[in-house]
Amino acid sequence: MPKEENKTKVEARTPRGLADREAGELAATGRMLDVIREVYELYGFEALETPAIEYTDALGKFLPDQDRPNEGVFSFQDDDEQWLSLRYDLTAPLARFVAQNFDRLPKPYRSYRVGHVYRNEKPGPGRFRQFMQFDADTVGSASPAADAEICMMAADAMERLGIARGDYVIKINSRKVLDGVMQSIGLAGEENAGRRLVVLRAIDKLDRLGPDGVRQLLGEGRKDDSGDFTKGAGLPLPAIDTILSFSLGGQYRDGAPAFDLFGLLGKSEVGAQGAEELLEIEDLARDAGFGPDRIRVDPSVVRGLEYYTGPVFEADLTFETKDEKGNPVRFGSVGGGGRYDGLVGRFRSENTPATGFSIGVSRLFAALKLIGSPIVSARPHVGPVVVLVLDRDRLADYQRMAAQLRGAGIAAEIYLGASGMKAQMKYADRRNSPLAIIQGSDEKARGEVTIKDLVAGAKAAANIATNEQWKALRPAQFAVPEAELVEEVQKALKEQI
User: Fold this and answer.
1) What is the dihedral of CA 316, 319, 324, 326, to 10 degrees?
2) 282: which of 74, 133, 297, 480 is 20 to 30 A away, CA to CA?
3) How far apart are CA 289 and CA 148, in angstroms?
4) 103 annotated to bind ligand
């Protein structure tokens, strides 16, 4: 090949932070999504689909990562000079949809959505620029019962997916309580918004970094193992102690905190209101039969998105796995959500209360594989029956056979390449075909077709030592009348199950 022509070749590569997914993984993911969908529909939620692209001003600026271009959002300008963005979650588009269709929708409006979202972030291990979420939201109810129901539904979904009780917990906290704690340490007001965000991010890293690491992030900062330094919130020691006392305070028990939360909140009205709401959510969950092993309040829970206004939730997997060095680690969060009473109000003159939950599909899929859930277990991908093309001038005959099989509900295709029989058989193997249909001129003259059972043939081949044995036995290959093709294929497929 001339050098000039070689220079024009484009390198085949996947963009960073994105991934290809093949048939087996897609099928397993589909089974997982079907289970989640069934649970959501049991709770009365109905399907909704919104576009992957929204007007940028409709999405708002709620992402926590402020250091990336477009504040974490992929954006571009349309030909009418309007700014558009790829959605970064499924909640902001829902708020736009509800506001746009407010008068005709039933309130409360209960919907679920599944789809890819996009983050303009630096990719890394477990951190993708495109990933799938599965959300359920109730819009139009301010009742803590709506929050409790979301948590119960998340717990039911975990168990229906095969995660044993005791291996997960739905943890609840409240942004109002967090705001109350911030007030108690002197971080109220808009002038402290940036420092509050640093504090929330620090609390959110408690599981990963432990109390000492969080203490550093609340103070002057922390240097990680790579030598990178993260600037801290610069809080004085008494404020750091207050934050850690709150974050490590444990769960609420028997209608009261396991530590003096109300004393910690001082005179903060919003904090006290948040604490009372958490206790009510917990009581509702207990009345419905969901014990603390499934749903409990945990002060360490912090959700990153800035639009949350009340209770926040997290689905946490508690079983241990191993990191790349073989050390035991907890799997951690596979989903979360919370109350966002101001998001729909961005489009309307009055606020509309709302609460919801989002499952991280890829992360949950990885967890289910780790525990060996049969829902996502590796199953052989079964391809179509392949009709071999041995006589090029008889394409119509082969197409007719494939059409007859499809008419009976059997996936089938004819070989459309230019290779001979041996290569066609290799193609059928690579397609994971259960059967190959063979009809050369001799079979056509006899009014027959040959059916080759590729599954049984592969098993038999393992026990055949020589070509002479192979030719003598011709394993899993038999001739049938052409008129009985469909019936015989159906019979052969049934025997493979």
Assistant:
1) 150
2) 133
3) 12
4) no
- Which ranges of 288-394 does DSSP label H, i.e. alpha helix? 361-370
The reply to whether 137 sits in an annotated binding site is yes
Strand boundaries in 361-432, DSSP class E: 385-387, 412-414
pLDDT tens digits, one per residue of 112-161 = 999 999 988 877 776 789 999 999 999 999 999 999 999 999 999 999 99
Q: Rounded to the nearest 5°, which phi and psi values hold at 141?
A: -125, 125
- Amino acid (1-letter code) at residue 125: P
- Please tell me the distance from the alpha carbon of residue 286 to that of residue 292, in angstroms, as a whole number: 8
Place of tokens 């589909």: 30
Instruction: Kindly state the DSSP code that residue 434 receives in the 8-state scheme.
Output: S
- Residue 230 known to bind ligand: no
Q: Return the domain boundaries, the chain.
A: 23-370, 385-496
For the domain bounded by 385-496, which CATH number is listed? 3.40.50.800
Closest to 279 measured CA to CA, from 253, 241, 260, 259: 253
CATH of domain 23-370: 3.30.930.10
227-265 per-position pLDDT tens digit: 788 888 888 888 888 888 777 765 444 444 545 555 666
23-370 with 385-496: one CATH topology? no
**Among 212, 204, 249, 40, which Cα is nearest to 133's?**
40
Annotated binding residue 340: no
* Residue 308 annotated as binding site: yes
Q: Is 307 annotated as a binding residue?
A: yes
Look up the pTM and report it: 0.80
